[in-house]
Amino acid sequence: MDTTVDLDTFSSLVERPDESARRAAEERWQALERPRGGLGRLEELGSWLSSVQGRSPVRPLSAPKVLLFAADHGVAALGVSRLPQGGTAARVRAVLDGTAPVALLARRFGAEVRVVDIAVDADPSDFPDDVVAHRVRRGSGRIDVEDALTPEETAKAFRAGMAVADEEADAGTDLVVLGDLGVGSTTVAAVLVGALCGTDAAAVTGRGSGIDDNVWMVKCATIRDSLRRARPVLGDQLALLGATGGADFAAITGFLLQAAVRKLPVVLDGVVSSACALVAQRIAFRAPEWWRAGQSSGEPAQAKAYDRLTLTPMQEQEITMGEGVGALMALPLLQAAADSLAEHSPAPFIPAAPKEQPKLPSAAELLSRV
After folding, report:
1. Is 323 annotated as catalytic?
2. Which domain holds residue 158?
């Protein structure tokens, strides 16, 4: 199997959001009869939505999607989480049967939920075919002593994430709330952030699933040992994801980049998606302009990643459970921003002269160039 992905292509294909649409949105805000800046953060969010949609007035968000990448991690065997090793499968089932918090909240906010099993440590027959369609393997290697993935698996997971971005863009999804499901994932995320930000283990080790001091020390030592394995491959993002990431991290990184190519805006959730965003930024420096940070989870690695990405969390909820719950809580803010800017028009909307839009390449077209 081909283990190469032409990462350089993303740097040229990822464009900036439409600045003229952003300026038009800001002019519309100024024309409204209200105190200047009276709607606070909603104004910035509405202008961002105009820019990523490439139009003003902004369209109301009508097809948001919660997208959850699910995988198990070998480091969970070290007891770095309060959740049991291999416990990801139960969390996936809770989402699929509608009892998980993310499923309940998504119904409340009018969003669909999609789970992508990329490396859950369970029999694939346990889940529907559409959930396991992009599965790469069961679980991952213990990154403190071995690679998480082979080079072939890393490329396959990255390409799977790209394919998912194409599927969502082609389906008409207009905003993705990005989350994850995985035991041990905050440990992996801390390794990636620590390596990319050049910090030591203690500076990025958080409490994750609510661990006590003793488990925190085990987690910190695991991150320290994993960082030693990450540093030699820092110059190669795919090698980094394979050595000290996992199938979900590779897939999310590929998804974020292809979503930016397809001009599909994304709301990041916890430390996992922020770590992947940091890797993706190394590949395409303009890509973060297509993302917003849903919330601050309180994880130190997430704070470092957002600082490097220059993203400001929309909320300070400190929701640490993953599953996209924290980011989903920001969806009503974005819906309100879009509705406020779309519905209160001081003058009839006169569209600009249409300009020919280039066809955005799918993952298959991108990969055919390799």
Report:
1. yes
2. 64-333
